[in-house]
Amino acid sequence: MGGTGCEGKTDAGETDGTETSGVPIDTSAEGSGTNTNTTPGTSNSGTAESGSDATSVDGTADTTDTASSSGDTTTTTTTGDPNNPVDCGGTIWACGDGKDNDGDGFIDLNDPECTGPCDDDESSFQTGIPGDNMDCKQDCFFDGNSGQGDDGCVWDLRCDPENPGEFINCEYTGGNNCDNQPPNQDQGCIEFCEPFVPPGCDCFGCCEVHLDDGTSVWIFLNSHPDCALDNLAACTECSPQIDDCGNTCEPQECELCFGETELPPGCDETNCPDSMPCMEHADCANDYFCYLGCCVPPPPG
Questions:
Q1: Entry pTM
Q2: Are residues 292 and 201 in contact, defined by beta-carbon separation less than 8 angstroms?
């Protein structure tokens, strides 16, 4: 299936003077471990460095990440090693360079804001790659490139009444072109994209984030430059297309869901669909990498 982005797109950062609808967050819950900043444009997670290429990687990053546990809950970790980066189609971006680029204590794919090695921004859910996922007609969000040519996936943000594309000039329009119906993805799209999709996300960057009060919200990862785990109010909500194409998360089955860093209580090992759990990249075969406790195939980039 083909598709092109909507005309007149602007950079998602050009939002001065525009008030976001944001994700409604209940900050009254005690023991909250998430900073729910309610002002778009004021994320406290820092600014990520731009991705580095393989020839410029140095050895200054901490390379001693280990697995830790608290009670019955196990933290799954991957080793960040600048001397052994994880590439995206031959390019080293911030989420694969072995460094803690945003200074939050989480390196690369341990960072909840990293969506995979094809991500150049550890401080927000946006990938930070120029032009990436900025089209109104979204393709496979997690394959490291924009355009349906290699995956055949397409979902028009302008057909989502939650209006997730409001900050990339893809506001909800509805009408005869949409009828608010999912596109019923081709089998080729599903087979291509789903192996790269984190548990709890659909193929188009709409992911479920669990809140401290026990509820959850679906957010569009490319909704705003400041959309991050500690600034969910800067994110816009989305209508998940996970039934058509995506990867559901079952925490009760010991899956580690998107945005989480620890397995549910009572789980000692991540339950992976292909029985390939891991603690670090070295546990995975060939060019596979360790993400959310499971070995994942390399995206094309």
A1: 0.73
A2: no
